[in-house]
Amino acid sequence: MKKKYMIGFFCVLLFAAVLLTAGYQISYRHVMDRQAARSEEAPTTESISAEGDAVQEEGFYLSELQGYVVVYLSDQTTIYEFTEIPLTDLPDEVQQEVASGKYVETAEELYAFLENYSS
Question: How far apart are CA 22 and CA 31, in angstroms?
């Protein structure tokens, strides 16, 4: 009788390990697919990082890239920042503005927008 319980316990343990491994693989593939999608866009755009007054003077454009909000510099081709904000999470009016290329003048306005809609 004890042997039956041990076999059952090990079967349940093995089944749980298989489910855990499968869940990890699925989430890993999802992350890698998103990263691959981002890297496919990278050759056509240039991503830079800058600090100070040079970035604050230019202005930014918020646009949509693969269902997410992306921040471009004023030339509208150089990606300044990728965000994790899905376009579908924004209100309809803001979705339309972002889809048409919403202009933000200062870095303070940009970060206020991102902070407001990122949570």
Answer: 14
Q: Are residues 67 and 85 in the same domain?
A: yes
Q: In angstroms, rounded to a whole number, what is the distance separating the alpha carbons of residues 16 and 11?
A: 9
- 58 and 82 assigned to the same domain: yes
Q: How many domains does the chain have?
A: 2
Asked whether the beta carbons of 110 and 72 are under 8 A apart, the reply is: no
Q: What CA–CA distance (Å, rounded) separates 17 from 100? A: 47
Per-residue pLDDT reduced to its tens digit, 55-107: 445 789 999 988 889 999 988 888 888 888 888 888 889 889 888 889 999 88
Domain coverage including residue 113: 47-118
Alpha-carbon gap, residue 107 to 68, rounded angstroms: 19
